[in-house]
Amino acid sequence: DAGVIQSPRHEVTEMGQEVTLRCKPISGHNSLFWYRQTMMRGLELLIYFNNNVPIDDSGMPEDRFSAKMPNASFSTLKIQPSEPRDSAVYFCASSLVRQTGPKFGPGTRLTVT
Amino acid sequence: KQEVTQIPAALSVPEGENLVLNCSFTDSAIYNLQWFRQDPGKGLTSLLLIQSSQREQTSGRLNASLDKSSGRSTLYIAASQPGDSATYLCAVLYSGGGADGLTFGKGTHLIIQP
After folding, report:
1. Cβ contact, residue pair A102, B42, below 8 Å
2. CA-to-CA separations, B70 to A27, B26, B29, in angstroms, rounded
3. pLDDT tens digit sequence for A4-52
């Protein structure tokens, strides 16, 4: 079990650029979550998928953010255009059933200058 | 809006002390509650998960309790060690249909002095 895999681990970009974060969930898990962590707001749920279908995207801050899950083994979170206030650590997590809780990836640290 | 609050925000104690971290939540309709550990620059490691029907869970020197009626959970760390230094996060999964995302507290930053 390789765990949840996220790439890149670090991303530095300029304001206005498009940013794509990637996630590979644990094989067999059917729910995938994207969270954002900042000093001010802590960890917040952005969106989650169940069986590749977006269930709740109410945490996505603006239309600049979009997420896709084209298949059970891959998801992307895209920010276009990026802004300095998007700087944060973005975590992906996956789970099989509610009872056992999600497993988190190592996160992607995004810095927008 | 469901909220999770952790007190204290930071704690520094000498090695060997027993300590308690606190977590409170506003809505008692929870499915389960989880305690995580986060080391600087790292991801989240699950420590203990308590189902809504349970009162406590134990793992080694860690014990987590849950009191749904009062909206509280505690994480007890026995005989603390410098390696326990980290941020501890409390997260609640609510029972609402389709609401599968965790609501997190902002964490307690713990330093164990050698």
Report:
1. no
2. 38, 9, 11
3. 999 999 999 999 999 999 999 999 999 999 999 999 999 999 999 999 9
In sign, the C-alpha dihedral spanning B12, A107, A79, A94 is negative
Chain A closest CA to B70's CA: distance in Å? 22
Q: Is the pLDDT of residue B97 over 60?
A: no
Predicted pLDDT at B2: 82
- Is the omega angle on the peptide bond into residue B8 within 30 degrees of 0, that is, cis? yes
Cα A110 from Cα A8, distance rounded (Å): 9
- State the Cα–Cα distance between residues A18 and A80, nearest whole angstrom: 5
CB < 8 Å to B107, chain A: 42
pLDDT of res. B96: 67
Tell me if chain B has a CB within 8 Å of the CB of A83.
Answer: no
Show residues of chain B in contact with A99, CB under 8 Å.
Answer: 32, 51
pLDDT of amino acid A79: 97
CB contact under 8 A, B32 and A98: yes
- Residue A34's closest chain B neighbor by CA? B101
